[in-house]
Specification:
The complex is a heterodimer of chains A (354) and B (518).
Chain A lengths: L17 H7 L1 H16 L6 H26 L7 H18 L1 E2 L5 E2 L3 H24 L5 H20 L20 H4 L1 E2 L2 E2 H19 L1 H11 L1 H6 L4 H27 L10 H11 L11 H21 L3 H37 L1
Antiparallel strand pairs in A: 1-2, 3-4
Helix pairs in contact in A: 2-13, 3-8, 3-11, 3-12, 3-13, 4-5, 4-6, 4-11, 5-6, 5-11, 8-9, 9-11, 12-13, 12-14
Chain B lengths: L8 E11 L4 E11 L3 E6 L5 H8 L7 E6 L2 E3 L4 H6 L2 E4 L11 H5 L14 H15 L14 H14 L4 E5 L7 H16 L3 E5 L3 H7 L2 E6 L2 E7 L5 H9 L17 E11 L5 E11 L3 E5 L6 H9 L6 E6 L2 E2 L5 H6 L2 E4 L3 H5 L6 H6 L7 E2 L2 E2 L1 H14 L16 H14 L4 E5 L7 H16 L3 E6 L2 H7 L2 E6 L2 E7 L5 H8 L16
Parallel strand pairs in B: 3-8, 3-9, 6-7, 7-8, 13-20, 13-21, 16-19, 19-20
Antiparallel strand pairs in B: 1-2, 1-4, 4-5, 9-10, 11-12, 11-14, 14-15, 17-18, 21-22
The chains are: A mainly alpha (354), B alpha/beta (518).
Chain lengths: 354, 518
Amino acid sequence: MTDIPAKAAAPSAPSGSVLLTLMKLRTFIALIAVLIFFSIAAPNFLSTANLILMSKHVALNAFLAMGMTFVIITGGIDLSVGSIVGLCGMVAGYLVLNGIDLQIGYTIYFNVFEIALITLAVGILIGAVNGLLITKLNVAPFIATLGVLYVARGLALLSSDGRTFPNLVGKPELGTTGFGFLGAGRLLGLPVAIWILIVVALGAAYLAKYTPLGRHIFAVGGNERASRISGVRVNMVKMFVYMFSGFCAAIVGLIISSELMASHPATGESFELNAIAAAVLGGTSMSGGRGTIGGTIVGAFVIGILSDGLVMMGVSSFWQMVIKGLVIIVAVVVDQAQRRLQSRVTLMQMAKAG
Amino acid sequence: MSATAEREIILKLEDVSKVYSGTVAVKRANFEVRKGAVNVLVGENGAGKSTLMKIIAGVERPTAGRILLEGEEVSFSSSGDAVNRGIGMVFQELNLFGNMSVAENIFATREITNRFGKIDRKEQERRAAEFLERLQAGIRPAMLVEDLRIGQQQLVEIAKAVSLDARILIMDEPTSALSAAEVEILFKVIADLKARGVAIVYISHRLEELIRIGDYITVLRDGRITGQEEMKNVDTQWIVRQMIGSDAKDFAKADGHVPGEEIFRAEDICLPRATGGLAVDHVSLSLRAGEILGIYGLMGAGRSELFDCIMGRHSHSTGEIFIGGKQVRERDTTRRIRRGLALIPEDRQREGLVSILSVASNLTLASLSRFASLFHIRGADERQAVTQMVRELAIKVADPVQEVSSLSGGNQQKVVIGKALLTGPKVLLMDEPSRGIDVGAKADVFRTMRKLSRDGLGILFATSDLDEVMALSDRIAVMSNGKLTGMFDRTEATEAALVAASALGHGPAAHKESIAHD
């Protein structure tokens, strides 16, 4: 999970400069820096309980950020993920409580596994709507997903008239119990959510590196026209990234409602911004074509640990926002500086070589 | 080109060097620009011509050395600085704003305003029209640049530079996308500027062109100046020798193999134009295995559009295509590539390469499924294919994981060709395969075409270069105004006949579209 966020596309010029190496590993260094800082500044920070709690927080953002990374690499953006989290949570909650009324006197109740599948399908479906708007109707990604952001949030609120679906324990006679497993369950001492994150992250990293689809995602972001002429099914690639993003958001929706044993329609508001921040912090280029899953995960950890650590230190949430914003800006500035420095180092080497 | 008495030197570079990321582009160059003359600069791609010009135009700053303008040392911190000193430049890669009108582009940063600071659109368009009139391009000032063909965009770029009223005008490959007729007009404009005492620095790959209009010639090789002469003292052989160090073979020779069965046929291809009429007008042609069919035509003759139709890039095109006698019913590019078609597009940067990906990723982009079992890319197989293609096409690259944008133009073109070949095509469509690449890379490309045809591929290649089409083709098709206007066997084709056929349908009647509402 913690593979080094090396720039996949960057030229592998031999860098003699220590500074350059430091800059390349900046997200990693930032991660270590915040870890060291808070382990000194915040008591109990390094306790196992706290670390596990933090990674659960981080995991939520990391899921969204992974989906977002692929979308951004293709040159798009997905603003709707927060709303999908909310809507999918409501879908899961509704199914646990009410099942589906067939209007002929029967109501189907699903077991938890089926509910999870249906919820994931809903997330993927909303992602597909994003994809169709963008590929078939040529709506700009920003606008398409902004529209879906409102629609999905509206639907989530409509589903319960704005109320929370409480107490999702289910009924043994209907076979709907066990919903809490995703959010609160543990396997081998680690929360289930973390295991899911590990599986999805490894899958996504593999996809990016070793599959034609992954290669096509980078190609589409780098040059859409050239990709099309090379036979890349650009529309299918775009459909995939938005559907994957929806899938990731659905997972988060499930985990949150499972953890709280309740579904609230406002869940996930502004989550999309945290996801974008993590991706950017991890070295994803907003202009497309560059980014890694490993980098994004590290970026999500930096943001997550930063905010949790600040809470533990008792820093006001207003200051937390300021600090988070500064970290993001610094990350991007360093990214630019690294590119400039890199070219200068190569240049100096060339000059030395004659 | 009357009595060339020593003309006055207006600009002088002394020991100028420029080091870039990746290369030393210019090494201790001494270069003189003379007033009222065409100062030609030649050299292979990557020799440093464009860099040298960017230094003069203030786009780049030299790492070392001095620039003397009329004897006085100057240092430009931006291109605006250079423009103020009377230095204008027509860039090789078009520096235009596609989303703005032609007039707005010509007067960008020098907008004509009225008393209240509002842009005087009418006046700009009127003045722009004057410059465009001189280029006789049929471009209206109110048109959006992105709606123009590349050739026309190049003319706009030229009009923009001319409108600067510069004392020194640098033209970096101004003719690379122009038709023969448009080149003639440009030369008239150049002669006119020359007579007014403007110093022109002219860069081109087309040697015959240089010899025709140049007064002084400077040859660059690997960033060094290897020769500086008055044009009247030199010939093609001399230039080529200075450029690449030895005499070059122009075109790979035919090996006399006989083409086989028909491998490809297009029937009745039509493509409607957005402005009405047909961009491709009922074109039918057939190609045999191992045959090179050249398609000659001027800019806008519909050659690229024909290729686009064949590749399935336009959903609204009509007509039928056959490969090996079987109709290709697939309408999309992906599946047509699988059926054995491959296109090498005209515009390398925009359509050929994903510039931020590596050489290796670009090479295998179109053929990844070949290296994948189910969904896993077999890394070893991919690397092997890349290494083999790099060797076969003589792509000069230290390591295939290098970004493709770090290569020179000729090597980038080879990557595009390699990408197409890795799909295992039966029919190869090459759109201006030698455009904007140096003599050495051209020879490599032509040799590759010969070899492929010997291996039984059918090759359709479009070009606006007469020599090229005559030297390489087994048969020559001529297109004009969307129609196929001639089909010649190599033995019976003459330059005159080709030119005549390429001008058919370009009468005054063909320009109906200019009545379009504004």
